[in-house]
Design goal:
The chain is an all-alpha fold. The protein has a domain at 13-61. The protein is built from 3 helices and no strands. The protein has helices at residues 12-28, 31-37, 43-65. The longest helix has 23 residues, at 43-65.
Amino acid sequence: MTQLSFSACTPLGDRVKGLSLRVGAQMSATEFLTTLREGRAPGERYIGYITSTYPLVVASTRGCCDRSPSSTPCKTPGSRKGWPVS
């Protein structure tokens, strides 16, 4: 794992962004994601990847949208609380 080096004065948002950029670059350089981009990934491996990452995507999206019961509903296309799907 990459060691992080942040100043105590670095805003949290900048820290999160920096970490996500580094982790994203590391993931993007993996053999699997390279073959996936090139369309050469075996179907069962692709399905395994999607089924393992899907819950993370849903959880992070819900975390951004469902702040509190009184918050404004999430306005993502296709969401039940948001805009209608066209």
